[in-house]
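agent> Task received from the user: take the single chain below, predict its 3D structure, and emit structure tokens. No templates, no multimer pairing.
agent> Plan: (1) validate residues, (2) run structure prediction, (3) serialize to tokens, (4) report one or two observations.
agent> Step 1 OK, no nonstandard residues flagged.
tool_call: predict_structure(input=
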Amino acid sequence: MAGSAVTGTGALAGAPTAYSGSNSQLSQAIQTIWSKEILFQAMPILRFEQFAVKKTELGVAPGLRVNFLRYKNFAVDPTPLTEGVRMTTNALTAEQIAITVAEHGYAVAVSELLLNASFDDIMASSSRLLGRHMAQYLDVQARDTLSAATSATFGYDRSAFDGATNFNLYQEGDAATAVSGSNTSVGSGTKAGKYKLTTGAIKDSALVLASKNIPRLGETYVQFIHPKQSRDLRSNPEFIEVTKYAAPGNFMLGEIGRLYDVVFIETTQVKKYGVGSAVTDYTSKVGAVADQYSYPVKANTGPGRGGNPELTQFGNGAGGTGSAYPTDTTTLTADVYESIMIGDNAFGHAISLPVELRDGGVLDFGREHALAWYAIWGLGIITDQAINKVYTN
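)
tool_result: status=success, residues=393
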């Protein structure tokens, strides 16, 4: 485990006491002539987490697990009753989905000399940077939780209908059948790089959720897309920009528009598998022994219980079959983006201690100052059927 680190001036000792980590000298903040405009690297803010089902019971009760109780639907038998014959009674059935919480946080340390020598308010800047870090940290965990779902569909190749001699806006084209490993896969093969997020891909994904009777989030399903995917989507004249809604209302964070009762959230947090890489294989992470330090689904999914993925899925369109997990290790020859569409009750966020900004107290007689964000939470799939991944170029 790496040791603690401290940030100081150019006069910082080579091996400061109690700080054996990668220490640094922030000499850029000490200048004779300076600009008060500090440039912060732009980072994505919360996009996925806003749709989680939040549970806060652990904040008032002891324990490290939150259990979600879900009743199973009754089987429907349309046979009418017969006069004189008593109705047969049936039992209630339910299942529990457990989410385990763990500690999360990130800390920085600076010297008293730096605070006095710097033209900038280092502690204020540190608190803003910690806030950005927390948002990205939480959203990556939420994305990874959704990514471990089993259902997947793929993009469409419309290259044969986009040319000047054979242009047809309403021809959907050919759908991919896998992420990699075949000539009709998104990331490898002879047609790699041609499978885009088209209207056909969106309708296929919505069909998967609707066919499973997944409730919508309000009036629509929600799909997280990468800016590259939104660029392709905006080329379609049927796409409705958020500024052109007939009845403007309360917009979701990151919402850019809608199509076919699907709202699109644009974020760079959507997974991108680059050329030369291999797609993550989640097979071994589902139903594994609890481990809060790996993918959240690994800690919060038990075989055959609650949030455990259904293990069978629709494949591409309504009737396809096959494994949704891209277990093939073929090296990708084209960039692959993993868009995610969700319905209601897709995943949960159990909060034992909300995020706090904490200081490290008096260190070395006040010569050192530490600041950190700290929280206790857990994330996990609630309804695997309510999540569908869309792999495109």
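agent> Step 4: summary for the user.
The CA atoms of residues 141 and 296 lie 7 Å apart.
agent> Done.
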